[in-house]
């Protein structure tokens, strides 16, 4: 008997890959306009290396980019990048098509819904609130809260216990085979892989019980599972 | 011979007192709507005490408010407050009337213009960029950069040296007698007090060379001083 669904957030409920790419590119363009004296593609190369080295939650990507290019701290250029990034975020953050309709139907079926996500708690909550979908979720579990993220099985176990769910009565929905679907399957959850974001072409014949292209397909899957 | 003007930022170039008050009130209202179980005026009392105790740049005001009211950390409520505060900031940050026209005229007179302000560098730059007036200023000097703020004379001396200005050739424009006008006068600058913000009713017969109600009055003052 299916009692609940755990969702990944980034690239599962909204287009994170696209938003982040556009926000970074627009931020770099605005920094060049503010005086960062470098060609655009070269700046993107440096920025992507900084993000790869320091991680996406480092918080000083633009500071390091400016220092790498100009050899000094320049608050005007850094702040210009931060503001542009933020403006793009506010403008572009919205759920994938059919997401809200699907969540309404799933709640109407009496299911517990939760989000389990890698990232900083306030940052992930900001996305959910700006996406306007936070009231659908009974709980939101972040790797920052637990101290360990995906694909660690302990993190998924912690998420299930916070939700009061057993693995076999839980559907897991995520986009990444390695970090979402494989550990969820290993714990005994019913796994639904959504083909979205930059990992959508990864092949998997082993861990996904279902593969969907749009979240709305989830409604029929859960209906069949509940019978 | 007047060569430059140093401006205070908050409540001198835009209505900081009003913006901060509205942003805090709206943030608290949204937090109550998100589940902060307390009466509005009581919440504002607690928040104002936290801000008074920890300072305005503390960064965890809403975290502390939620902990004080609920006895626990609640990321949904905290993030709701942060987003509302930010949305109000984006909506309300604009210069006082006549500010941009006045800055255009002052630049056309060949003057160096600078901002000297207490606060965090990125935060003060964010205000200037969102206000759209940052291109008028040859330099922006913050207390965070210097390590010491107003009314310390050293901070004003540091600002003058960054601008390449001597006190006697510099006009200082600010709203506060104690933190702006008094130290500027003591250093030998020509002081212009603008009657704006929450300190506008403070009486001063000693340190203000000029008192203005709107920034545009500055143009005639400087014209006369340059003759």
From TrEMBL, chains A, B:
It comes from the Archaea. One of its GO terms (molecular function) is phosphatase activity. Pfam families: HAD_2. Coiled coil: none annotated. Its cofactor is Mg(2+). CDD domains: HAD_Neu5Ac-Pase_like. GO terms for biological process: small molecule metabolic process. InterPro entries: HAD-like_hydrolase (IPR051400), HAD-like_sf (IPR036412), HAD-SF_hydro_IA (IPR006439), HAD-SF_hydro_IA_CTE7 (IPR011950), HAD_2 (IPR041492), HAD_sf (IPR023214). Keywords: Hydrolase, Magnesium, Metal-binding. Belongs to the HAD-like hydrolase superfamily. Catalyzes the dephosphorylation of D,L-glyceraldehyde 3-phosphate in vitro. This is Glyceraldehyde 3-phosphate phosphatase. It comes from Methanocaldococcus bathoardescens.
